Amino acid sequence: MNDLYAVTPLSKPPVCTVQVPGSKSITNRALILAALAQPAIKGPSYSQLENALRSEDTEVMVESLQRLGIAVHTDWESDRITVPCAPVSQWKPHADFFCGNSGTTIRFLTAMLSLGNGSYRLDGVERMRQRPIGDLLEALRALHVNISTELRPDCPPLQLNAAGLHGGVVSIRSDISSQFLSALLMASCYAHKETIIHVPGALVSQPYVQLTIQMMKQWGVDVEEMHDPDLSYRIKLQRYTARTYAIEPDASSASYFWAAAAITGGRVTVPGLADSMQGDAAFRHVLKRMGCTLPDQNTVQGTPLTGIDIDMNAISDTVMTLAVVALFAQGTTTIRNVAHIRHKETDRLAALASELRKTGAIVDEHPDGLTIHPRPLHGAVFDTYNDHRMAMSLALIGLRIPGVQVRNPGCTAKTYPRYWQDLENLRQ
Predict the structure, then answer these.
(1) Which residues does 41 contact at the CB level (< 8 Å), separation at least 6?
(2) Measured between alpha carbons, how far is 168 from 140 in angstroms, rounded to an integer?
(3) How distant, in Å, are the alpha carbons of 307, 315, 327, 328, 380 from that of 373?
(4) 369-373 and 362-366 strand pairing
(5) Which of 26, 73, 78, 79 is closest to 46 using CA atoms?
(6) Cis (ω within 30 of 0) for the bond into 295?
(7) What is the pTM of this model?
(8) What is the pLDDT along the chain (428 residues), one digit of tens a residue?
(9) Rounded to whole angstroms, what are the CA distances from 179 to 103, 114, 199, 236?
């Protein structure tokens, strides 16, 4: 794509249906579960993932599994991935993995590789080398995994000398990312003995952990949740079973089109999310608090908006979307309890504050959130910090305000390669 993408305001409110691609979060979890799965009795010796997402994040996960010796086959024409059952004993004993800037890939893969027997190195782009993974590493070391870092004590690159996951009792902090806990949960049923995971303190983005547990159950593994008094999880020795698995549409991607309805007074439907497992599907209810109506569980009807004060910890991937919607509301909007998004693809709080101010809005940056004071808006050239969610959110401003341009639009390929095409389809 060109270095700049100009967004032209809509001539009328959209009334349309948008088919967003499959969920990145579900696709990458399903790839891990499928790679660890065993054949069902009298069943096929492979798993098949339907409606899988093709994006940078999922492609680096697929490539990583292939580097491990698992013959994953992709049929992107039909959005299908086939993953053969591959016992841990058949994994390659040595491999290097490049994980790009995919947090799910490097975190889930690190825990999974601890089950093997071999020497593995994991690295990523420069930003990945700044994203903490120390809480997961400490937990794995407590379970007798030999793992070290090369540059900083809590960030990639990682060197893992695997000899199986011991199991037992372990604590893991999850106040920076819930992906550390999800990674350990998915691997623990293949440990040498039963594992109990304590989670002291705060757990951010809890719906993603529930998504992990629900998917593990769908693949045949039960997790017992306890409170004693800290939140804890008991995972007995079990095995995933190969299966055909349909992946939901991506709720985070849906948020942009529900937001488009909110800020333009349109009506947009994103099918397939009425009974979603994904926490971000709740974003439609955030828009309802601001004044929108929900004709059904897949549709948002835009109406005049009112600012709100809201804790967005549970659905923090939609903070950027909400911040843009807040520009068009009457009254201020305060977003709270999302300090952890400073450790994402960029420091999302600082980046949002900087970019939204370009429109004429007044934005107060707090340690854990933002307060947005709407003002008369004007166009701007937005920087995206190579962050897909910054690009997709900021582009929405151009649906109402002329003169909006987005730098590095190609960064949306991380999770939504056809985003710009779907955004333009709102005109139809």
Answers:
(1) none
(2) 11
(3) 9, 22, 7, 10, 17
(4) antiparallel
(5) 73
(6) no
(7) 0.95
(8) 679 999 999 999 999 999 999 999 999 999 999 999 999 888 889 999 999 999 999 999 999 999 999 999 999 999 999 999 999 999 999 999 999 999 999 999 999 999 999 999 999 999 999 999 999 999 999 999 999 999 999 999 999 999 999 999 999 999 999 999 999 999 999 999 999 999 998 899 999 999 999 999 999 999 999 997 889 999 999 999 999 999 999 999 999 999 999 999 999 999 999 999 999 999 999 999 999 999 999 999 999 999 999 999 999 999 999 999 999 999 999 999 999 999 999 999 999 999 999 999 999 999 999 999 999 999 999 999 999 999 999 999 999 999 999 999 999 999 999 999 999 999 98
(9) 8, 16, 13, 20
Sign of the torsion formed by the C-alpha atoms of 407, 408, 413 and 414: negative
Q: Please count the other Cβ atoms lying within 10 Å of the Cβ belonging to residue 39.
A: 14
Q: Which position has the token pair 């790839």?
A: 31
Q: What is the 3-state secondary structure (H, E, C) of the chain?
A: CCCEEEECCCCCCCEEECCCCECHHHHHHHHHHHHHCECCCCCCCEEEEECCCCCHHHHHHHHHHHHCCCCCEEECCCCEEEEECCCHHHCCCEEEEECCCCHHHHHHHHHHHCCCEEEEEEECCCCHHHCCCHHHHHHHHHCCCEEEECCCCCCCCEEEEEECCCCEEEECCECCCCHHHHHHHHHHCCCCCCEEEEECCCECCHHHHHHHHHHHHHCCCCCEEEECCCEEEEECCCCCECCEEECCECHHHHHHHHHHHHHHCCEEECCCCCCCCCHHHHHHHHHHHCCCECCCCCEEECCCCECCEEECHHHHHHHHHHHHHHCCCECCEEEECCHHHHHCCCCHHHHHHHHHHCCCCEEEEECCEEEEECCCCCCCEECCCCCHHHHHHHHHHHHCCCCEEEECHHHHHHCCCCHHHHHHHHHC
Q: In which residue are the tokens 């049929």 written?
A: 75
Alpha carbon distance 294, 284 (integer Å)? 8
Residues with a known catalytic role: 317
The closest of 215, 233, 105, 238 to 172, measured between CA atoms, is 233
Three-point CA angle 216, 218, 219, nearest 5°: 65
Contact status, residue 232 vs residue 200, Cβ threshold 8 Å: no
Angle at 162 between CA 161 and CA 168, to 5 degrees: 125
Residues 6+ apart with CB under 8 A from 59: none
